[in-house]
Amino acid sequence: MGQPHLDLEAPPPLPPGALRVMALGGLGEIGRNMAVLEFDGQLLVIDCGVLFPEAEQPGVDLILPDFGVIEHRLDDVVAVVLTHGHEDHIGAVPYLLRMRPDIPLVGSRFTLALVRAKLREHRIDPVLVEVAAGDDHVAGEFHCEFICVNHSIPDALAVAVHTPAGVLVHTGDFKMDQLPLDGRLTDLGTFARLGAEGIDLLLSDSTNAEVPGFVTPERSIGPVLDDVFEHAAQRLIVSSFASHVHRIQQVLDCAVRHDRKVALVGRSMVRNMGVAADLGLLRVPAGLMVRLDDAMTMPPEQVVLISTGSQGEPLSALGRMARGDHHHVTIEAGDTIVLASSLVPGNETAVYKVINGLARLGATVVHKETARVHVSGHAPAGELRTLLNVAKPRYLMPVHGEWRHLRAHAALAEQTGMTADRVVLAEDGVVVDLLDGKASIVGSVPIGNVYVDGLAVGDVGEESLQDRRILGDEGFVALTVVVEPSTGTIVRPVHLTARGFSDDPAAFAPALALVEDELRRQLSTGPYDAHRLSQVIRRTVGKWVSDTYRRRPMIIPTVLEV
Amino acid sequence: MGQPHLDLEAPPPLPPGALRVMALGGLGEIGRNMAVLEFDGQLLVIDCGVLFPEAEQPGVDLILPDFGVIEHRLDDVVAVVLTHGHEDHIGAVPYLLRMRPDIPLVGSRFTLALVRAKLREHRIDPVLVEVAAGDDHVAGEFHCEFICVNHSIPDALAVAVHTPAGVLVHTGDFKMDQLPLDGRLTDLGTFARLGAEGIDLLLSDSTNAEVPGFVTPERSIGPVLDDVFEHAAQRLIVSSFASHVHRIQQVLDCAVRHDRKVALVGRSMVRNMGVAADLGLLRVPAGLMVRLDDAMTMPPEQVVLISTGSQGEPLSALGRMARGDHHHVTIEAGDTIVLASSLVPGNETAVYKVINGLARLGATVVHKETARVHVSGHAPAGELRTLLNVAKPRYLMPVHGEWRHLRAHAALAEQTGMTADRVVLAEDGVVVDLLDGKASIVGSVPIGNVYVDGLAVGDVGEESLQDRRILGDEGFVALTVVVEPSTGTIVRPVHLTARGFSDDPAAFAPALALVEDELRRQLSTGPYDAHRLSQVIRRTVGKWVSDTYRRRPMIIPTVLEV
C-alpha cells in the first residue's frame, strides 16, 4: 500500500497538463474537510469545514483549515463546492470569505440555505450558485457534475470533476441507505456510468471504514421511537443534532401517532427546522407544533420536546435540565429522555454526565447503547467496497478520517482487488499530482492548526496552548520584588500571587522566606543584575515546590525597578 | 423503585441491634469503591480504592474516598476487607493506613501481595490477614465468610458478613465466566446456600447492568490472538492491563505456539507478572521470557512484547512508540500492535491518538472494535439477574456504578420480581440501616472529593480546580503597579504579564495605555485607595479584552506600595 513518506519535501511546480490535489484538512482527522484542486493556475475548493478542538487544545472554539497555502492565491479560486451543510464541511466558509467575499459558493439548496444563515451572522453577502443532483457547473477549467448521495443531512451531493488531466470524483460524506426517508438514494447508476467512462482518482469518505457491514436504514428508528413513546407516561424529551432533519421528521411523525404536541428547544434546532420546513424538507402537520412556553403549561404526557444537547454540551438545554437548573423544564422521576444521536468521540464523558444527571433525577434515559435510536450517516466497510466495485477508480485516495480510518479504507480497496500502488495514502498538506493517468505523491506543504478563540483567529497558537496546559494542570505562582537598581536594595519585599495551586492560602509562606534570604544573599555578594534575581526566584521556588509537593506550577518572577 | 431523597438530612444515631451501611465511594461513580459497615460501635470497611480524575479535575493524580466521616473513629475500625487487587479497590489503602497503620487488611493471597507492594512504596508495614474462598474470619461483631468470584484479576472474593442484625453480602466485582482459565468459578452454590439461609441485603456490582446478555469467556480470546500471531510477519506488541494475569497468560501461551519469545515492557507489568508467577498464578514456560534489551537484538518475527499503555497514557511505552520517540522500540510499517484491553470511558481520545499514531507509522493495530481481543470483567444483565435469582436477597443495594448503571441494575431486580421498595438506590454518603430485617435510607452525610496532587493530599480543592479550569481555558493577565501611598503617585508604570492568552506579545498594548489613563484619572480625582485602583485595573482590562476578543482570561491586578 502506498506508504506515505513522513518527511516529504516541498512539491515541484505543477507540470503542464497535470491536476494537483491537496487536502488542507480532513486527512488524519475527523473534521475541517477541505480539498484544493489545481489545474493550469486555477484552484477549485471542495468543502471548507471546521474541526472541533480536543482537550489538548483548551479554550479553543474552533480549528480552521490552514489557508496559508492558498491565501496569496485567492484570486485563482474559481469556486468553492460544498457537498453538504454539516459544520465540518461549511463551518470555515466565513473565515475564507473574510479574505475574499466574492468567491462563488456552489451547493444544493439546503446546503446553501445553511451557509447563507451562517454568513449572515458574519455580515457577509455571498455569491451563491445553486445546483442539484444531475446538474453540471463549469468553474474555469473544472467541469463539475453533481451526484446524489444519501447522508445524515438532506440534500447531500458528491461531485465529479472533469478536467483535461482526468476525472476526479469526491464522494463528500455518504452512505447507502436503501430506504431513505426522502427517497434520495446514493446514485450508484451515475457512479457506475462514471466508472465505465473512467474515474482516474476517487476521494472517498473513510469515517466508518473500520465498521463492518452495511448501514441500518434511518427508517428503522421509527418503530423504536414508537415503543419509547408507547411506554412514556410523562414528559418526553428527544435530543438530536439540529441538522438531522430526517431524525426530527421521525419524531414529529411519532408525535402525531401518539397524540403529543411538539415544541423545539434550542436556537439552532428552531432555526434549522424552520429552514427545512420552508424548503419542504421537513413535513410539519398543521397544529402539531407549540411554543415552549405553551408546552410547559400542558399536561406532560401530551407533549414531546425536541432539544439540542445530545453531545452533552453543558450549556445546552439538556445539559441544564440534567443539572436541574433549566429555567423552564424540570425533570421529574418517571420522565423519559431519548438521546437519538451519535456519541462523537471525545464527548463521551460529557454525554455520560448528562445521562447520569438525568438518571439521578429519576428519568429513564434511552440512548444508542441501550436501544437503536441512532444510525450512522457514513458508509461502513460493506458499502465502501460496493462503491469501489461500482466506480472502479484507477486510484483511491481515502479522505475524511483519522489514520486508523484511512488505513482501514486502504485495506478494503486491496480486498476489492486494487493493488497497493493504486491507493494514495495522504494526510493534510500532502500533494498528489494526477499526470498521464497516474496519481502520485509529489511532496507536501506544512499545515498548521488555525485556532478561533472568541473573536480572534490565529492569535492563539501552540505557545499559548502549551501555557494553558501547564496553567490548567498546575496553576501558577507569580513573585514580584521591587528593587532600587542603583543601590541594589530591595524596596519592597517579595509579593506573591498563586492561583490554581492550592486551596491553602499560606501554602507558599515557607518558600517566600527562602526567596527573601536568597535574594538578599545575591544582592550582598555581587553586582545588581535583574535577570539574575529573576533566575534566583525561579530556581528557589521551583526547587522548593518540587521537593515539597512534587508539582511544577508555572513560576513567574518579576523584578520591578523604581 | 426506592427513590433516593436528593436532599437528605444527617442520619439519626444508629439504633441498637441495627446494621448501618454507607458508601464513601463507588455509588454514582466508577471507582474509589469503599463501603463502611457499622454495628454496635464497630466499623468494618469493604474495599478502599481510588477514582481517576476527569478532565474537569485537571492536574489531579487521584481522587480518594472522603475519609472525613470515619477519621475520628479509626480506632473503631476492626478490619478492611479487600475483595480484589484492582486500584479502584485497594488504591486508597495507603492513605487510610497513614492515619492508622495497624488496621488489619483482610484479603486473598494475590490481593495482599499487590497491596503489600503498594504499601512498601509508602513505607507502611501493614497487618495482613490472608483468607481464601470458603474461609471465615471474625472481625469484632462481623463474621465474614469469603466466596469465590470470577473477575478480570485472579483471586477475587465476595464476602458475606454475618451480624446479629442480619446477613449482608457484598459481591465485590464479579462476572460468571463458565470457562475461566484458572477454573475459579463464581461460587453460585454458596450464594444459593446463603440465599436459602437468608440474605438480608445484597450489595452487587452494577458496572455492566446496561449491557445485555452474558460474558464471552476470557478463553475465547486465545483463538483470536492465534489468528493475529499467525498473520504477523514482523514485530508484535500486545498491550494490556498490568494486573490482567489471565490475559497475559493467553499471550504467553500463544507465544509458545508461534515460537516467539516474550519480553515485558513497563514497570507495573514486570512487577505484577513477577508477583503472579511467584504465587503460581502465571505459568511461565522455561526459556520463554527474554529481557527487553535482548529482545531488541532478535529478529522481530521471533519476539512478542507485552506492554502497558493500553489506555493511551502518553508517557507509557506504547504511547512513546506511537509518537516515534521510544528509546528502544521503533515501529516499522508492517508491525502489528494489539490493544487487548477495555477502553475505559474518558480515555477514548488518548487511546485513539495512540492507535492513529501507530497506524500513521504503518502498523496494523488490532483493538476491541476491530477484533474480539477483550472481554469485560463485570457481569452483564443476564448474569446479574442470575445472581439475584440464586441469592434471593430481601433487599438489593446496587453498588459500583454511575447513576445510569445503578438504575439499570434496579430495573433488572424488578424484572426478577423484587418490588421497588426492596431496591435501595443510594449514592455516596447515603446512610442505609438494616433493622428488624428491613433496609431503609435514614439520612446522608456530605461526601467530598479528596484530591491527591503530587505529594499532597487534600490541599487542592474546588477553588484551585476552578482557577485551573479558567487558567487552562483562557490564561491570565497580571498587572502590577507600584504606588507611593502617601502622595498617591505612580512610582512605576503598570507592568503586565500575560500567559496562555495570545501568541502575540503586543496583544495587550492598547489595554495598557487605557489602564494608565484610568489610574491617573482615579488618582487625580479622589483620595488614594489601593483596593479601588485594583478594581479599576480589573474592570478596564476586563472590558477591553471582552470587547476586543470576546474572552475572559483571569485578570490579576496588584498594587504594590513602596
Automatic annotation (TrEMBL), chains A, B:
Q: What is its EC number?
A: 3.1.-.-
SMART domains hit by this protein? Lactamase_B
Q: What PROSITE patterns does UniProt report for this protein, alphabetically?
A: UPF0036
Q: Which UniProt keywords apply?
A: Calcium, Cytoplasm, Endonuclease, Exonuclease, Hydrolase, Metal-binding, Nuclease, RNA-binding, rRNA processing, Zinc
Q: Which residues bind Zn(2+)?
A: 84, 86, 88-89, 151, 173, 400
Gene Ontology molecular function terms on file: 5'-3' RNA exonuclease activity; RNA binding; RNA endonuclease activity; zinc ion binding
Q: One biological-process term from Gene Ontology?
A: rRNA processing
Enzyme class, UniProt record, top EC level: hydrolase
CDD domains recorded for this chain?
A: RNaseJ_MBL-fold
Q: Which residues bind substrate?
A: 242-244, 374-378
Q: Which cofactor does it need?
A: Zn(2+); Ca(2+)
PANTHER family assigned to the protein according to its UniProt record, in alphabetical order: RIBONUCLEASE J (PTHR43694:SF1)
UniProt record similarity statement: Belongs to the metallo-beta-lactamase superfamily. RNA-metabolizing metallo-beta-lactamase-like family. Bacterial RNase J subfamily.
Write the protein's name: Ribonuclease J
Q: Recall the taxonomic lineage recorded for the source organism.
A: Bacteria, Bacillati, Actinomycetota, Actinomycetes, Geodermatophilales
